[in-house]
Amino acid sequence: MKTLFTSVLLFFAVVFAHAQQGSGVITGKVIEKITKASLPGATVRLNAGSRYTVSDQTGDYEFLKVPAGTYELEVIYMGYQTQKQSVTVTTGGNTVVNFVLEDGAVSMNQVVVMGDRLRGQARALNQQKNKSNISNIISSDQVGRFPDANVGEALRRVPGVTMQNDQGEARNIIIRGLAPELNSVTLNGDRIPSAEGDNRKVQMDLIPSDMIATIEVNKTLTSDMDADAIGGSVNLITRASPNGERVSATLSSGYNPIRDKALYTGSFVYGNRFAKSAIGMVLSGSYNNQNYGSDNVEATWKKDNFGNTFVSATDIRRYDVQRVRRSMAAAFDFKLGKNHTIFANAMYNWRDDRENRYRMRIDNIAPTYNANNEITGYAGRVGLQTKGGIDNDRNKMTRLEDQRVQNYSLRGEHLITSGLDMDWTVSYSTAREFRPNERYMLFRQNNRTINFTGTSDFPVYNTTNFNANTVGLNTISENDNLTEESELGAKLNFRMPLSVIEGQKGRLRFGGRLRVKDKDRNNSFTKYTPVTAGLIPNLGSIPNIYFDGKNYQAGEQYVPGLFASRAYLAGLNLTNPAVFKGEADPTEFLALNYTAKENILAGYLRWDQDINDKLSAIAGLRVEHTRINYTGNIIEDEEDLAGTRTSKNNYTDFLPSLTLKYQANDDLVFRGAFTTALARPNYYSLTPFVGTIAGDQEIDAGNPNLDATYAYNFDLMAEQYFKSVGLISGGVFYKKLKNFIYTYADRAYTTSKFANDFPDLANPIPAGEQWEFQQDRNGESVDVYGFEVAAQRQLDFLPGKFLRGFGVYANYTFTKSKAKGIADSDGVLRENITLPGTAPHMLNASLSWENSRFSARLSANYTAAYIDDLGGDAFGDAYYDKQFFLDANASVKVSKVARFFAEATNLTNQPLRYYQGTVNQTMQMEYYRPRYNLGVKFDF
Question: Under 8 Å CB-to-CB from 834, ≥6 apart: which residues?
Answer without folding.
Answer: 816, 817, 818, 819, 866, 867
